[in-house]
Design a protein that fits this description.
The strands form 2 sheets. A 4-stranded parallel sheet has the order 2-1-3-4. A 4-stranded parallel sheet has the order 6-5-7-8, with helices on both faces. The protein is of the alpha/beta class and about 240 residues long. It is built from 10 helices and 8 strands.
């Protein structure tokens, strides 16, 4: 298959059918970058669903590789967090050898973002106690000092209804209790939080790592593009080099 995406085409595998993050990703990507999305259908956000999703990621990646994309991103943190840092790395390297195309997961993307902004002590918020615990364990294994991870607990299918104002309030309280934090992680793709990233960075004085912005930051670097964007945080404004 031939594409008219003259700066590169990215295959993107999402774990759920939720709208929102896909639209934000399309809006943040530079002109000339193509995106081919495939959605899985995780509905309950349970551990068994996440474990079973790994085969789906592999099979969908094969489809994208056959279509001729330049890069494959595996969105959704819990399925790969369950493998641990080393297990995830081993799996991704195996798929890269098999398909001959670079792959990277949401977790690998976020850890590179933390390192790019020079953060070792981090705090975060999520919408699930399971994701909270997985994130704490994974980021600790990856070498970060997780000072706090706090959830806004709602049913998995209602996570997209959490308002930016609710998230800001939780981040405010979490940062106040952990003033030595060097970066803030807004974990997950269900909620829409780009509108408060810049505000939080001004108010708290440290970088905020939001998933859509972090993904588009790394896509630019991997496709050798440099198009800064204002208004959504330092990652997209300064485009620091991944480490």
């Amino acid at each position: 298959m031939s594409f008219s995406s003259w700066r590169g085409t990215v295959g993107l595998i999402k774990p759920t059918m939720r709208p929102g993050s896909m639209e934000e990703t399309v809006r943040l990507l530079p002109e000339g970058v193509g995106l081919i999305p495939i959605h899985q259908n995780v509905q309950r956000g349970s551990q068994d669903e996440f474990e079973n999703a790994i085969k789906g990621y592999h099979d969908h990646a094969l489809t994208l590789a056959e279509a001729g994309v330049d890069l494959i991103h595996h969105s959704g943190t819990p399925p790969f967090m369950m493998l641990g840092v080393e297990g995830e790395k081993k799996t991704i390297r195996k798929w890269e050898r098999e398909m001959g195309i670079p792959h990277f997961t949401a977790n690998q993307n976020i850890t590179r973002a933390f390192r790019a902004v020079g953060a070792k002590k981090i705090i975060g918020v999520s919408y699930s106690r399971l994701q909270n615990e997985l994130t704490r364990d994974y980021m600790t294994e990856a070498g970060f000092n997780v000072l706090a991870m706090e959830p806004i607990e709602v049913p998995f299918e209602k996570a997209g209804q959490i308002s930016p104002e609710q998230v800001y309030a939780l981040v405010h309280d979490t940062f106040t209790a952990n003033p030595k934090a060097e970066a803030i992680y807004l974990q997950g793709n269900a909620w829409r939080l780009l509108s408060i990233v810049e505000m939080m960075e001004r108010d708290f004085g440290i970088p905020v790592i939001e998933t859509c912005a972090a993904l588009c930051w790394e896509i630019q670097h991997r496709l050798h593009i440099r198009e800064p964007r204002d208004g959504i945080g330092m990652l997209m404004r300064e485009l620091p080099t991944p480490r």
